[in-house]
Amino acid sequence: MKSLKRILSILLIASMSVSLLAGCGQEQGSAPEQGSSAGESGVSFSAEEAYLDPVELEEVVLEDEIVALASAPALSKKFVPVASGKKTKKESKATIDYSNTGDGYVMAQYTASTNKRLKVKVIGPHTEYVYNINAKEWTTFGLSDGNGTYTVKVYENTTGNRYAVVASVEFSAQLKDEFGPFLYSNQYVDYEEAKNTIALAEKLAGKEKDSMKKVQKIYDYVVKNLTYDTNRAATVQSGYLPNLDDVLKQKKGICFDYAALMAGMLRSQGVPCKLVVGYAGDVYHAWVSVWSEKSGWVEKAIFFDGTSWQRMDPTFASSAKSSDSIMKYIGDGSNYHEKFIY
User: For 20, phi and psi rounded to 5 degrees?
Assistant: First the structure.
């Protein structure tokens, strides 16, 4: 009799699971942004698993993030991310590779064919990041919160702005050093295949060994040679990602382009560099911070005026031709508020 009741319970839960899953729709789309979640995830399970440990099916709402607008030699294999397959979480539609968390990054791939919009959420000890991804492509995400426990989830769109989890893993990251997340190519600072960007950085740096002198040379080039792209600023869509070689060729861009180009050039030269997104006053903006052997992390400050370091903000400095007023604004840390670090 008990066996019959158990079978009936399993069949009832299985039928409920089917009816819940049948209501999920599909939608198209795909590229990165940050966001927040409401709830955790559409998880599928077998009847036996449901009987032993019932899990309520949920979906998460993921909003698109706004874009920060405010007015060669081969890359060293040392900084090329790789899905080495030593530690993975594989599901039917996606794989998460967390083999190289000690180097400061994790990778994910949606392995099935789909026209649905896809996202990855990286939940760190202090910050949550949400990125767009494309099916069938490995994508790299930096562990910018440093050491601690992370959860990585791959989502597929169900309907509207609702997404269901198709793969999830939790792991503890112990970085070999703090610089890994800010040396490797990732989705926001994608310099791995930007051969012209790498070649120019090599040319500008020359035989220079001092990291801050490399910074100054690359900074001077970007500030003097790029102009602000007002048309792109007016038309850019959420999910936009800079193509560094295109930015270099066109010699113009929005602040996201400026900061990503400089960060990519510096990382390719082995100089740890953070791409920071946040607010300059009330404007959504992007800038960079770097690390030097002599000064440690120079947060939000690179330009040296002969007395002290001033903020490295290539967009504002370039657009205003490094005028006294803009350099004073750039040097005032109270004008800048960090939101995300890549």
Answer: -70, -45
CB 262 within 8 A of CB 273: yes
pLDDT in tens, 100-142: 999 999 999 999 999 999 999 999 999 999 999 999 999 999 9
Neighbours of 115 (CB within 10 A): 11
- Residue 292 vs residue 271, higher pLDDT: 271
| CB-based contacts of 55, cutoff 8 Å, min separation 6 | 43, 45
Asked if 136 and 146 touch (Cβ cutoff 8 Å), the reply is no
Give the Cβ contact number of residue 41 at 10 Å.
Answer: 18
Query: pTM of this prediction?
Result: 0.67
CA angle 127, 116, 48 (to 5 degrees): 80
* Measured distance CA(94)–CA(166) in Å, rounded: 7
pLDDT tens digits, 42-52: 433 333 333 33
Burial class of 298 by CB neighbour count within 10 A (0 to 12, 13 to 18, 19+): buried
Q: In the prediction, which pLDDT does 23 show?
A: 31
Grouping H, G, I as helix, E, B as strand and the rest as coil, residue 228 is: strand
Angle value at C-alpha 227, between 225 and 228, nearest 5 degrees:
150
Q: Is 266 left (phi over 0), alpha (psi -120 to 50) or beta?
A: alpha
66-to-34, 205, 216, 284, 286 alpha-carbon distances in Å? 9, 34, 30, 8, 12
The candidate with the shortest Cα–Cα distance to 276, out of 315, 222, 317, 244, is 315
Per-position DSSP letters for 119-157, written without gaps between them: EEEEE-SS-EEEEEE-TT--EEEE-TT-SEEEEEEEEEE
pLDDT digits (tens, 9 = 90+) for 288-320: 888 777 766 766 544 333 333 344 555 545 554
**Pair 241, 176: CB distance under 8 Å:** no
